[in-house]
Amino acid sequence: EAQVTQNPRYLITVTGKKLTVTCSQNMNHEYMSWYRQDPGLGLRQIYYSMNVEVTDKGDVPEGYKVSRKEKRNFPLILESPSPNQTSLYFCASSPRPGQGPYNEQFFGPGTRLTVL
Amino acid sequence: QKEVEQNSGPLSVPEGAIASLNCTYSDRGSQSFFWYRQYSGKSPELIMSIYSNGDKEDGRFTAQLNKASQYVSLLIRDSQPSDSATYLCAVNRPGSSASKIIFGSGTRLSIRP
User: Fold this and answer.
1) Does residue B92 contact residue A103 with C-beta atoms inside 8 Å?
2) Which positions in chain B touch A109 (Cβ < 8 Å)?
C-alpha cells in the first residue's frame, strides 16, 4: 500500500530534550516536506527536500532541523524543543518538484507533539 | 494580505443540498490549485486539483477556477453527513526553485440532517 508513515504518533516531552520524528514514504517520491498545523494558522511549511541531500527552509524553520540521506526518509529533528513547538506535525511527499500533478501531496497520519 | 484566504466558517448546509466553498489567492503567477479534506484529528486528503480556468468535475465534487479574479471554489453536490470536515484550499507559490504549496487555514463544513 502506497503510504507516508510517521512515528511517533503522539509525544509528550519536556523543554530542551532533543527529539526526532521520523517520516518514511514508499512511493519513490522525490519531494518531501514537513508542516505544522496550529489552530487558526493552518498548515505552515517547516522544511522541504527536493531530493536526497537537498533540503531548504520553509516558512517557519526556526528551531527545527532535517536531513535527507535516503530518498524514502525525511526525519524532523528538534534539538532543544520549547513549548511554542507544541503542535500537530505532518510529513508529506509528492512525486517531484514541478507543476501540475507533481505537486499533489500525500500526507502522513500526523504527530501530535506536546512540549512541557 | 494572506496568500490564500478562506472563510473559517462554520458553514452549515442541509443534507442533500449543495455546499459551496470559496478561496482567494494573492499571487497571479500561481498555476496549481488543490482542495484537501481534513477530518478532525486526521491528515489532509487530496480530493480535487485544478490547473486551468473553468470547471472540473469528479463525482459529487466540482472545482472552479477563475484566474482573472484569483478565485477558486469547490462545490459539493448532494451533501452527506460524511462531508462534514474542514476543507483546505492550497495554491502553489511560484518563483521558487521548488514549487511550494501554500495552504489556507480552512473552512469548517457541517452537514445537518
Assistant:
1) yes
2) 42-43
- Residue A73 is classified by DSSP as B
What pLDDT band is residue B18 in, cutting at 50, 70 and 90? very high
For residue B32, the tally of other CB atoms under 10 A from its CB is 21
Going by C-alpha positions, the residue among A37, A38, A31 that lies closest to residue A92 is: A31
Interface of B with A (CB under 8 A): 8, 31-32, 34, 41-46, 49, 51, 88, 92, 97-106
At A23-41, the pLDDT tens digits run 999 999 999 999 999 988 8
Cβ contact, residue pair B103, A43, below 8 Å: yes
Question: Which chain B positions have a beta carbon within 8 Å of A31's beta carbon?
Answer: 98
CB atoms under 10 Å from CB of A15, counted, come to 11
* pLDDT score of B103 more than 80: yes
- Computed over every residue of chain B, the mean pLDDT equals 92
Overall size of chain A counted in residues: 116
Instruction: Please tell me what DSSP assigns to residue A110.
Output: -
Average pLDDT of the residues in A79-107: 87
Task: Write down the residue that cell numbers 518514511 correspond to.
Answer: A24
